[in-house]
Amino acid sequence: MFDDENAQYLVVINGEEQYSIWPAVREVPSGWTALGGPRPRQECLDHIEREWTDMRPKSVRDALENAGSLIAQGSRMVLSQLVDADELKAMSPEELRNMLASLDDDLIYGEDGEVIEHTPGSETA
């Protein structure tokens, strides 16, 4: 059914922005939307190859993007507590990365953000 080169197909997409082809003679399944009208199989496959460049589901892409934003916000918040603004501006990107990398090695934080345990060998509490 999906490999008939002479049949007409639809390009369909779901809520996760995943693409597929679907026989034009059949009703589009629930949760999927047709993009354009019927066309030859190879034309549909070419369209999908051009458009579907990131195979990750939309929910995964969004979660990763939000996680990156939260990490950046948390990093800025932590740094603002450790170093004043003028010192931050004067630091190189490498110095900032090193400072952030060393934070988790030195301290363990509670849910409220307060230090709850000091790692042995660390100078800060």
Describe the structure.
By secondary structure, the protein is α+β, with helices and mostly antiparallel strands. The protein contains 4 helices and 5 strands; from the N terminus they run E-E-E-H-H-H-H-E-E. The strands form 2 sheets. A 3-stranded antiparallel beta sheet has the order 2-1-3, covered by helices on one side. It has a two-stranded antiparallel sheet with strand order 4-5. A hairpin with a 4-residue loop joins strand 1 (8-14) and strand 2 (19-23). The longest helix has 25 residues, at 58-82. It is rod-shaped, with a radius of gyration of 26 Å.
Compact description:
The protein is α+β, with helices and mostly antiparallel strands and 125 residues long. The protein has helices at 41-51, 58-82, 85-90, 93-106, and strands spanning 8-14, 19-23, 32-40, 107-109, 115-118.
How many helical elements?
A: 4
The tally of beta strands, per DSSP, is 5
Low-confidence stretches: none
SS-based class? alpha+beta
Termini Cα gap: 67 Å
Biggest pleated sheet: 3 strands, antiparallel
Strand order of the largest sheet: 2-1-3
Helix share, percent: 40-55%
Q: H/E series, N to C?
A: EEEHHHHEE
Radius of gyration: 26 Å
What percent strand? 15-25%
Shape field: rod-shaped
Average predicted local confidence, pLDDT: 78
